[in-house]
């Protein structure tokens, strides 16, 4: 049995002269290979009032290259049963690819081609713009999405994270194709590009394939990454509601700013969060809101991770008549969470859960590749998985209480919802 | 059914029951799904809290699903804890309590689940189309049940349904992963061997092979995009034509994945409908869904039409594509491509132990294990003439339901 764990002895990691980093880990029993990674730019590179420019530019990449039109590009990918996609986050453009191991070089080379030589064809520009506008229109009717956007506006204020990466109908509809081309020329390049690969291929072979097409890519005109502006958290509680007609369910989010992802507090809050709204069937709040009160099918808490500010949130979908009742129940649970230590049994249970989940996260190529990306993004070091158990074991009930108190200030909760108008 | 896989120290246990919304009677829709919820509420031996924590405590994950044909429960766990999951499944096969208070809280939880789905125009349209696609057969009903039935079902209804259908003779247990088959078999026999089975008695509906001609419906509601859904009859999964239909689906709307747990999909951008509808700007997206069922079911196509678009114009384009596929044989190259896509999807799923456990029971629930084991071989044996004949038999304009959801534009108010 292969029970080895990705660590400094088994992960191949190297950074090339052009600033690109590769991490590779083998799973030789698999006939497939999965790769993922990230590169500049993200939505924070959107110029003032041009929200959605980075995302639109990314969407254009998969519409054809200078050599391959849309049909030929996708025929090459789909005819071998492969998949390739790109997306935009706050800070970076992410990519994913999956294929049979014998097709890795073909698929990787296609990704390199779409990144380096996109066609930016006029016809595709119009089509993609219509797709984005339709997507935004659909989101504007989605209660979960509207509650989430209202939450981000309230939490982040003037920070760029207040805006959806996809942009707004008003901004997207006025972009010109030349602006997208310029954005691509300015920001896309090998510096800061990270690739993680896992599957039925030896790391050295993966290294050869990836470096052959990308190792020599030099692009001096690539602009440096945007600096993240400071985040100033709200100083008072905020309550907002987005009214949407004829919705049978309202979505609710309650939250506060989260700790920095690379910090001791994050590990402590992560364990605390499992007790609050994840462990078993959605933790304490699942018990209170779903199991005992029968108010919601979905209710859970989430601790955001990322570079830059993130949020620690509770979300629920409830009947509009039960919105205030649910908020009151969640407040009660938060009060308990911030005034009484969690029990030793609760702590022990979630610690065992966190430790037991490690082998399960290594169950698939995609799971391993995603861990490699996190290791690189957050600078955890290649032995992170080996060090994690000791960190988890060292967390105490008192530490969870004092840390939770620092983040969950019940006088500064941000509460947003979307659904039927409030009466 | 057991499958040894020793790549990581993990096992995935799946217990399948041959009961779903297909076996439900009028006014009692949603029973099977509700029983599934009640199975997490406890027995004398395992409280609801015990059930939640048994798997979570060791880092595993568990869930359950109800479909028209089956209900299944699964746990993926570090392999050292397999015994605990088997003990739980054996116990709740016969000893679930169905406490009346739990029944009442779960009633509102399930109504909330349904209300969450009703927020989406796609759900409302799909429910209406499904209802028009069958006259009597329970495939017409939403698995969650209708709201009226959810308000009327009693604790007795649920408990009788449970006792009648949850028994060894109606169950398939599948375990994949880091196991020693002999010792697992012994353990299973010890835990399940003594559970009594009574003769199976469930409502078996008459299959509906055709649809009413001229089925067309139009809904209207808030939204900023229109939706078009078309449903044609498809053969039962056991029918040899099902595999030819799979090739048609791959070509028309893109390949479907048999993987349950995010092991990758293949895009459909070169499919005929994407090319004709999305590339030409008649729709923002299009996808298809061919379901493998015990009885003849439906193949559906869904298209999202942008606010200033016209669903009827999109329908004309689809009609033209259907005319082409029913008029000309596919080339062998096109069939080979569909097979290559299916092979790749299998390969992606095979690195995931949970999928391996799922596949065994899934195919056994509507056919048998050979169905999934021989899936690729069966696809390879499909000929161009068989594809043409299947398309002509099923994709008929007089044998389909056309549904349109027309959005009445609204704007969210801050």
From the structure above, extract its key features:
heterodimer, A: 423 residues, alpha+beta, six-stranded mixed beta sheet, five-stranded mixed beta sheet, globular, B: 414 residues, Cytochrome Bc1 Complex, Chain A, domain 1, 18% strand
Radius of gyration of chain A: 23 Å
Question: Residue-averaged pLDDT of chain B, rounded?
Answer: 93
CATH class category label of the largest domain in chain B: Alpha Beta
Give, in order, the helices and strands of chain A.
EEEHHEEHHHHHEHEEHHEEHHHHHE
Percent helix among the residues of chain A? 40-55%
Please identify which CATH superfamily of the largest domain in chain B we are dealing with: Metalloenzyme, LuxS/M16 peptidase-like
Distance between the termini of chain A: 61 Å
What is the helix tally of chain B?
16
Short description, anyone?
The complex is a heterodimer of chains A (423) and B (414). Chain A is an alpha+beta fold and 423 residues long.
Structural summary, described in words:
The complex is a heterodimer of chains A (423) and B (414). Chain A is α+β, with helices and mostly antiparallel strands and 423 residues long. Chain A contains 15 helices and eleven strands. In chain A, a hairpin with a 4-residue loop joins β4 and β5. In chain A, α9 packs across α15. Chain A is globular. Chain A starts with 11 loop residues before the first strand and ends with a strand. Chain B is an alpha+beta fold. Chain B has two domains: 191 residues, Cytochrome Bc1 Complex, Chain A, domain 1 (2-Layer Sandwich), CATH 3.30.830.10; 193 residues, Metalloenzyme, LuxS/M16 peptidase-like (Cytochrome Bc1 Complex, Chain A, domain 1), CATH 3.30.830. Chain B has 16 helices and ten strands. Chain B has a five-stranded mixed β-sheet, with helices on both faces. A five-stranded mixed β-sheet of chain B has the order 6-10-7-9-8, with helices on both faces. Chain B is globular, with a radius of gyration of 22 Å. The interface between A and B is large, with 83 and 80 residues.
